[in-house]
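Dear H.,

Thanks for agreeing to be a second pair of eyes. The structure we're designing against is below in token form, covering all 341 positions.
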């Protein structure tokens, strides 16, 4: 018998340090009001001190496990998603594992950036449905602030991003003592088209050259090699197109209409992208959930972070259907429909 995977626990963690648009590094010559108008971001969280991505991931995971009323030893698999690993290798999963006191279980790493949560959810769902694992911990975490350019050259990228983490527990069984909603995964589709991968990337190194970190063989400007590169207008258009099409397809596949959707939870990349997607899909603005104003784009952590906050606020009720969509580097995108149980 195929098990029906359920999200039975969720938690998030944000660093304490708040960086408002006015607080961005002076060399960026930032325009606070202009940043908010273009992106919706007013502030974001950036780490302080010698903190790594796995530290944020572990804190979020502990909260998800507590929400699920499970111990770390109840988990039999970890799936981790990030674009900002502690180091080039190994991945986030194995560095998070000992911080939870877990050993001798597999740790998978997902490299799908802003679509990382949906990809992780898809992998974990398949594992549970086939009976390979019973309880899977998904951890999504990012430390963007250490890898962002701090000059005017990056003023169109750096203000978008924040640090943070979120985690969910997927199980074959609902916990009998749980009081908060669990979530079924009714539809989940993910996609990729790699021919435009260079439109949004961060190189740092290039194995096509020797030595692989010699930026002088690639560009006259080291900042183009070290920090994120983005064709903003192209990504905006493709994000709107990809998310809206994936969202419509997911609703149709579930045999629903948009009237059946209680909440729309888009990946928090840019508030104007989210608004445009909802406008194209004719979704009422009051159905769209958002937190980019306070946390910025936390990439893989974005969707579960917003879901966790929304649950904490008590907005989501049992029976609510949630449409979530993502688009990111790769290019990758997808959509899912979750139902609160």
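And this is the sequence the design step returned. I haven't edited it by hand at all.
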């Amino acid at each position: 018998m195929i098990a029906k995977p359920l999200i039975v626990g969720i938690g998030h963690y944000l660093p304490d340090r708040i960086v408002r648009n006015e607080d961005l590094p002076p060399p960026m010559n930032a325009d606070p009001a202009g940043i908010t108008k273009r992106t919706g971001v007013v502030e974001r969280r950036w780490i302080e001190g010698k903190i790594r991505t796995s530290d944020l991931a572990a804190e979020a995971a502990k909260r998800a496990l507590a929400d699920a009323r499970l111990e770390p030893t109840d988990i039999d698999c970890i799936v981790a998603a990030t674009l900002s690993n502690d180091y080039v290798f190994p991945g986030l999963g194995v560095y998070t594992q000992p911080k939870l006191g877990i050993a001798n279980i597999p740790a998978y790493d997902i490299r799908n950036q802003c679509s990382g949560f949906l990809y992780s959810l898809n992998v974990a769902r398949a594992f549970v449905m086939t009976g390979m694992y019973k309880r899977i911990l998904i951890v999504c975490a990012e430390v963007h602030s250490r890898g962002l350019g701090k000059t005017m050259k990056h003023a169109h990228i750096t203000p978008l991003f924040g640090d943070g983490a979120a985690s969910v527990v997927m199980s074959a069984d609902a916990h009998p003592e749980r009081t908060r909603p669990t979530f079924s995964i009714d539809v989940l589709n993910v996609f990729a088209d790699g021919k435009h991968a260079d439109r949004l990337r961060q190189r740092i190194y290039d194995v096509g050259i020797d030595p692989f970190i010699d930026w002088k063989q690639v560009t006259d400007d080291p900042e183009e090699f070290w920090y994120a590169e983005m064709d903003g207008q192209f990504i905006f258009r493709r994000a709107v197109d990809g998310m809206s099409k994936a969202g419509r397809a997911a609703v149709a596949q579930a045999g629903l209409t948009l009237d059946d959707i209680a909440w729309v939870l888009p990946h928090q990349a840019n508030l104007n992208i989210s608004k445009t997607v909802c406008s194209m899909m004719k979704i009422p603005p009051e159905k769209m959930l958002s937190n980019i104003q306070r946390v910025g784009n936390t990439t893989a952590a974005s969707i579960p972070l917003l879901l966790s906050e929304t649950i904490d606020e008590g907005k989501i009720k049992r029976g609510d259907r949630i449409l979530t969509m993502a688009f990111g580097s790769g290019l990758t995108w997808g959509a899912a429909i979750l139902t609160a149980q």
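Two observations from my side: The mean pLDDT is 95. The radius of gyration is 19 Å.

Warmly,
E.
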